[in-house]
Design a protein that fits this description.
The chain is an alpha/beta fold. The chain has 12 helices and 8 strands. It has an 8-stranded parallel beta barrel. The protein is globular and about 50 Å long.
Length: about 290
């Protein structure tokens, strides 16, 4: 009887410890092909962020194959990037609103079918400022087309999450601070922000910009500043940026959008490296 009582007590104690165990409120994913689903799953990642055009800007027969494959993955594929082709312009003399809205409608309809709910807007070739073009006019054009795309996104329950890029890739939206200003001007619930910590590091943008942009932030990307390497390669200190995420009570996704030397070998250590700093920032004892 005493042994039975002791066993029951042990079970209750273990259950209590498990119930009180803290978990990170953010999800960490891999920006990669869904072909790497098993690798990500085996190493404890939460999701995969795929290529929008690869999945959805394809003939219907190819899309149907992707759709069937996505339904079999162990990890959810609910976020994509690489959104617009260079032929679609959001600012400048070559903007075609009708063509842009038609493209976006097709992409978002398919994204909804696939279970994707966040699409990252980087697409530097679509938003580059033409030489000599008025910046104020570009802002006005971008806000106008942004609202048009957001209305389509609303129809399909998609959130557009725009990211800032660094000056080696873009000449218009190069800081999270300016990206946040544009999102505020667009002022639509389906047009929000991605904080790409790699690009912030490249622009020496301080972490407190994340706090200022907090109400618009729905997604994150990350890589080390040096060579856009996988986290832990050069021991980048992400802690100030993670502490800023904690201050805004961020509970979204963080995608590793980095260059891998060998993903199979680096994926476990990169995740462990991020979790160590995230646990510290979020005051979690694993």
């Amino acid at each position: 009887m005493k042994q039975l009582f002791g066993l029951l007590l042990l079970i209750l104690l273990c259950h209590s410890v498990q119930s009180n165990a803290q978990k990170l409120p953010v999800k960490i994913g891999l920006n990669t092909s869904y072909d790497n689903d098993s690798l990500g799953f085996a190493n404890g990642y939460d999701y995969i962020e795929e290529n929008t055009r690869k999945l959805f800007y394809v003939p219907d027969s190819v899309f149907q194959k992707h759709l069937a494959n996505l339904r079999k993955t162990k990890l959810p594929v609910n976020t994509t990037n690489v959104f617009l082709p260079n032929t679609i312009k959001l600012i400048g003399p070559d903007v075609n609103v009708k063509w842009t809205v038609g493209y976006v409608d097709t992409i978002f309809k398919r994204a909804q079918q696939a279970g994707v709910n966040i699409i990252v807007l980087g697409s530097s070739g679509s938003r580059r400022l033409p030489e000599g073009y008025s910046r104020n006019k570009a802002i006005s054009e971008f806000v106008y087309i942004g609202r048009k795309m957001a209305e389509v996104a609303k129809k399909y329950k998609i959130t557009i999450a725009m990211e800032s890029l660094n000056r080696t890739e873009d000449n218009f939206i190069t800081t999270l601070e300016f990206a946040n200003e544009l999102v505020n001007l667009i002022n639509h619930p389906n047009f929000k922000l991605t904080a790409d910590i790699y690009h912030m590091l490249m622009e020496y943008e301080p972490a407190d910009v994340i706090i200022k942009a907090g109400k618009n932030l729905v997604h994150c990307h990350i890589a080390e500043r040096e060579k856009r390497a996988a986290p832990g390669t050069y021991n980048e200190n992400f802690l100030p940026y993670f502490q800023a995420l904690k201050k805004i009570n961020y509970k979204g996704r963080i995608s590793l959008e980095c260059r891998w030397d060998n993903m199979t070998q680096q994926a476990p250590s990169a995740l462990a490296y991020l979790k160590t700093q995230l646990n510290q920032a979020y005051n979690i004892k694993p």
